[in-house]
Amino acid sequence: PAYPEKVDLSNCDREPIHLLGNIQSHGCLLALRSDWFVAYCSQNTEQYFGTAPDKIAGEAIKNWLDKDTLHHIRSGLQSSMITGRNERLFNQFIDATKLEVDISVHHNGEFTIVEFEPVEENRDTTDHFVRSLLSQFYRAADTEELFETVAEQLRLITSYDRVMIYKFLSDGSGAVIAEAKSQKLDAFLGLRYPASDIPKQARTLYLKNLLRVIGDVNAPVYPIFPTVRGQDDAIDLSFSTLRAVSPIHIEYLKNMGVVASLSVSIIVNGKLWGLIACHHYSPKVPSYFQRTELELFAEVFALELSSRLARDRETESLRVRKVHNKIMSTIASDGALIDILTNQFRALNELIENDGITVIIEGQVSSTGITLPEDELRRVVRYLNSQPPSQIIWVNSLAEVVPQYETAVHNIAGLLAIPVSKTPRDYLLFFRQPQTKTINWAGNPQKAASMGPNGSRLLPRGSFKLWQETHSDHCHEWTEQDEMVGESLRVTLLEVMLRHVQERDTILQ
Ligand code: BLA
C-alpha cells in the first residue's frame, strides 16, 4: 500500500525503501508502544506465538513472553539507545510456544521494534572467526592483497557461493575489486556497475545500518498488521533486520540468478567506501552469531583500510614536501617569473606524472614535452578561465569540455591546471596523452532499467552480459592523489610568487 505509484530511474532515489511495510519471511516482527502493548505485528505471528495477528495487536506483550525474556528485551533496548544500533539477544524462548529464538531490539523514535528469528539447531557458536581473520589480514603486503585475503577468508567462513569486495568510484558507479567464488560460477571480478544499481537512499540507509540479509528472493513477504493507508503512517523499518527489500532490487537479484544475499557496509572516514557483497544460489540466512561477527569484522577491516590509506597519503605528502623544499631552495631570486618556473621543469616533472608541461604567464608560453599550438592553447585557457578561480582544475577529456577540440590531432587528451597567480590566464599546465581505455560493464549502463510490459512499472535490467565501453579521447585518469599534489603545488607557487614580488619591490626601492 505504501508503494509509490511509479518508480523510474529518475525517481528511483525516492522510493521510500524504509516504509514499504513488509518483512521477510524468516522472522517475525512486533512494534511495541511505550506501555509495552503491541501496536503492529507481522502477519505471521501464529507461527511464533500461536496467536493470529489480530489477536496480538492491541494486547500486552507480557501475555506471550516471560519475565526473563522481557527483562532482556528491556536492557537490550537500553543498550540500543546508547549505541544507536540493533541489540541482539541470543537463545531466548517465547513462553507461549516454547520456541527458541534470537531476538533483535531497537527503538525507532515511536515504537520499540522487537524481531524474532528461530534458532537453527546445528550452529557452532564456539567458532570465533574474527580473530583468525585479523591475523591473516595484518600480514597482507598491500591493499590489493588485503582485499583478496578478506574475500577468500569470508567465503570460507560464511560459505556463501560468492563473496565480493565492491568499491564505490568517484562517479558513484562501482567495481568488484576482489572476489572469491565457487568454481562453477562465472567471475564478476573487474566488472563495473552503474550508480543507479544502488540508489542514494539505499546508500544513506547502509551508512546507518551496516548489515543486510536477503534470505530468499522467491519467498513471500509478510505485511505489517494492521495495514496503514499511505506512507505518512507507515512504520519506519530503517533499522529492522527483517525489512523486506525493494521489489526492484529483488527483481535485480533474480535477473542475476541470485537467490540469497548478504551485504555489509565498509565505512571509511564516515563515508560509504564500499560493500562486502555475498551471493548464494539457494536460500540462506546466516545466524545472528555470524552476523555479529561479520559486523565486527567489517568494522575492524574498515579501520585497517583507513589506516593503510592514511599511511599511503602520508608517504605521498612526504615526497611532495621534499620536492617543495627542493623548489624553494633552488628557486632563483630574480629574473622573469616564466624563466624561474621554466628552470624548475625537472623538479615539477618528478612531482606529477605527465607527458608535457607548459607554463603561461602574461601571454608568454614556455614548455617541455608535448604541448598545444597557440590558438588551441588559447581556447583551452578560455575554458579554464570560466572555472572557479584560484583552484586547481583537472580534465580527463578536453574533447568533452572544449568546443571542437580534436584529441587525435594534438595527441593530448587531458590536463591538470594550476593557477599561478591571482590574475586569471596564468597557469601551469600538466598534459597527458590519450589512452585507449576499456571499461567492462556488467550490462549496458545506459539500459540500467527498463519499463515493464505495460510501461507502468520499472524493471531493473535483464541482462548482465559483458558490455564494453571504449574511450580513445581520455587520458590516464587524474587521481585524488594527483589532486592533492596539485593543490600543494598551488601553495608552493603562491610562495614562489610572493618571493618574486618581494624581490622586485626590494630592487625597485
Ligand atoms: C540495493 N543494489 C542494492 C544492494 C546491492 C545492489 C549490493 C544492497 C542490497 C543487497 O544486499 O543485496 C547492487 N549487488 C549490486 C551490485 C552487485 C551486487 C552492483 O551484487 C554487483 C556484483 N536497482 C537497479 C535499479 C534500481 C535499483 C534500476 O538496478 C532502481 C530503479 C534499486 N537497489 C535498488 C534499491 C535497493 C538496491 C531500491 C535497496 C534495496 C533495499 O535495501 O530495500
Automatic annotation (TrEMBL):
Keyword entries, A-Z: ATP-binding, Chromophore, Kinase, Nucleotide-binding, Phosphoprotein, Photoreceptor protein, Receptor, Sensory transduction, Transferase
Catalytic activity reported: ATP + protein L-histidine = ADP + protein N-phospho-L-histidine
Residue stretches making up the Phytochrome chromophore attachment site domain: 142-303
Presence of keyword rRNA-binding: no
EC number from the UniProt entry: 2.7.13.3
Protein's name in the database: histidine kinase
Organism field: Alteromonas ponticola
